[in-house]
Amino acid sequence: MACPRILSQAAPRAALLLAAALALPACAHDAASTAPAGKARDAFVAQRGKPGSPVHVSIRVPAAPLAVGATRVGLALEAVPGVTEVGLSYRTEGALRVEAEAPARVVLDGQRKAVVEVPVTILANGVHYLHVYTDANGRQGAISIRLDASRPTSAKAKTSAPSTQSGGFILLPTQENRSGGSAR
Asked: Which pTM does this prediction carry?
């Protein structure tokens, strides 16, 4: 049997460790839940750029799924020393349009930083990409931003697999494409 003195010393330590272990997740959870709801979504997320890139870009995109229509993508720019102005150009993939008021040149502040909003319009449901190209002191960089405007899936929209009660085979429709060449 264990010595009562060891048990009496271990009990407070165990209680302290247990209380600390239980309090930590609760504190972290409480801190996250007491933060304003918009703070998590309004945070900028740093994008990994090429080593030596003159401009580092962080992005802020509204939470997915996005609705079809107008929205804004936030860009936080931070440049290396010697850069005072950044040129921006945009390309899109999918049903996405960059509006005319999107900034083409951004003057950085004294700390070589700037925050800009790029107005875009999502024209259809689906996944779209906004490609942002930066130009500073003759050096270029690029990032791609995914905009997810897909419809949320519901339990009713899911389809089940076809039944295989008729022998274990599933018949799938096929389509034959011919290239126009002669078959041998």
From this structure: 0.61
